[in-house]
Amino acid sequence: MQDDKTGGVPIRTVKSFLSKVPSVTTGTDIVQWLMKNLSIEDPGEAIHLGSLIAAQGYIFPISDHVLTMKDDGTFYRFQAPYFWPSNCWEPENTDYAIYLCKRTMQNKARLELADYEAENLARLQRAFARKWEFIFMQAEAQVKIDRKKDKTERKILDSQERAFWDVHRPVPGCVNTTEMDIRKCRRLKNPQKVKKSVYGVTEESQSQSPVHIPSQPIRKTTKDDIRKQITFLNAQIDRHCLKMSKVAESLIAYTEQYAEYDPFVTPAEPANPWVSDDITLWDVEMSKEPSQQRVKRWGFSFDEVLKDQVGRDQFLRFLESEFSSENLRFWLAVQDLKKQPLQDVAKRVEEIWQEFLAPGAPSAINLDSHSYEITSHNVKDGGRYTFEDAQEHIYKLMKSDSYARFLRSNAYQDLLQAKKKPESEQGRRTSLEKFTRSVPPGSNRAARARHRSRSKRPPTSPALKKRQRRLQPMCLFARPHPLGVVSASLGAALGPSPGGSPSANEGTW
Length: 509
Hints:
Number of strands: 4
Organism: Oryctolagus cuniculus
Oligomer: single chain
Domain RGS: 301-416
CATH class of the domain at 289-416: Mainly Alpha
Domain DEP: 5-80
Main location: membrane
GO cellular component, one term: neuron projection
Distance between the termini: 93 Å
Low-confidence stretches: 188-194, 202-216, 419-444, 453-457, 474-494, 496-509
């Protein structure tokens, strides 16, 4: 970006009335370079990206303490690699005091302190009152070194140093991009870590910083230190920390367990009737018996039983056989309470209390004394979460006791081991009825009309009619059987037989 020979941002020296501004570029040039080399079409996006780069201190305006990018003729300068934030600077307040004190010693209009910098200098002077003479001597030494440099070089270095402190001690109201996370600051710091100093000031002179925590002098380890370390390590051992290998193993086991129920991994059985022509799923849902795959999922966890309506019904039947169904009914009542309108909450709370917890309740539940006291206190000011502690206690009780016995019960094992029933006559009749639904309306009536026109029987004698009336009560099919209509539909769909006679499938049963 700074290499002008390979298409970088043009850097030039701008002449003014009585002076020169060396090594600068304009905000417009930077924005145009970003749009051209990063394929950015929106100028606003390029300005935003440039502002992010400037906020980190890699590019800075030469006449403003606020590090931002403007798409105009404002002059910008690139920061020296020595001051880049990537060097992980952690400058102390002592270094900042030396920098501000050094600027007050130079009678330059461009080096005058801003209002907030003057306030910072006064505050640091009060904080470092005992060592201010040392800070002043350090500033004088830095000024003497700067005076030996070339005028142009000194002007560029002053602006780069000012931009460095604008990043690490920003203007009030601006975002501090180098601010440490408070959670990281509270961690145990390494006492042997030495922070880098901007001006080479020793750690001894920085020990009285009013902001940063001073590093403790190195001393010999005592028995008390070793005991504290042992206590700390024992506390770390007792902490519940999972290794990444254990977490990955748990995730893999969970994925393998539920892969059978994920339609993206395993094709659904039966198929979704909304995307296929198979309506078996609807037939299964209409039946009272749950599928074997559904029952198997109840054994994964207690929550799977509670999420499934059929699973709750089966679990409730099991609890009724053990005379403990009030636990599940209480849990379901509390869940329903959380969904009630606010105007009905107080009434519902009283109903639940009278049914399950009040003295002499018809369906009293077994609560420990602590949960009962908390619930009794909460009932006085009823809300949606009045029975939260009692519900949690009942949930743990059912999960640890009733759920385990439910999985071992004969009712659950029978559902789990149930095989798919063979196709019966009812199943065949259902298949034929499915075929009749695909036949267009009116085809049965047309088939019967064609049959009557093709096969007109001769008139029956009176004696034969009398005999038929006598045998009619003994007929197996006193009413037309549904398969008679189906056979007529088949005859209409297949058409007449090659011999011109009615098809064998036509007729009345």
